[in-house]
C-alpha cells in the first residue's frame, strides 16, 4: 500500500511540475509574440500612403478577389452534416422545454 501511494504521489507531482513548466513556456511564447523587436517577426501587410494613394505589400486582397471567392464558396454549396444535426437537436430541445414549461406553469 505504501508503494502504491508513493507511486501515485510521484506521478501527481510529475504532472503538476509539467503543468507549471507548460504554463511558463506558454507565457514566454506569448511575450515573444507580442515583442515587436523580434528578428523573425514580419508584418503580413505593410501599407504606405503616397499622394492620396494607398499601396499595400503582401497578400493582394481586392474586392474582385473577395467576390470571386464568395462565388466559389456559393458554387461549392457545402453541406455540414454535424452542423445540421446540432441545429435539429437544439430546435427539438428548445421546443420540448417550452412544452414542459407550459405544462408546469399554466
Descriptive report:
With 106 residues, the chain is mostly helical. The chain has a domain at 1-38. 67% of the residues lie in helices and 11% in strands. It contains three helices and two strands, in the order αββαα. A two-stranded antiparallel sheet has the order 1-2. The longest helix has 33 residues, at 2-34. The mean pLDDT is 80. It comes from Neobacillus massiliamazoniensis. This is DUF3679 domain-containing protein. InterPro entries: Uncharacterised_YqxA (IPR020534).
Number of helices: 3
User: Which strand order spans the largest sheet, edge to edge or round the barrel?
Assistant: 1-2
Q: Taking Cα atoms only, what radius of gyration do you get, to the nearest Å?
A: 28 Å
Mean pLDDT: 80
What is the overall silhouette? flat
Biggest sheet features: 2 strands, antiparallel
InterPro entries: Uncharacterised_YqxA (IPR020534)
Protein name: DUF3679 domain-containing protein
Pfam families: DUF3679 (PF12438)
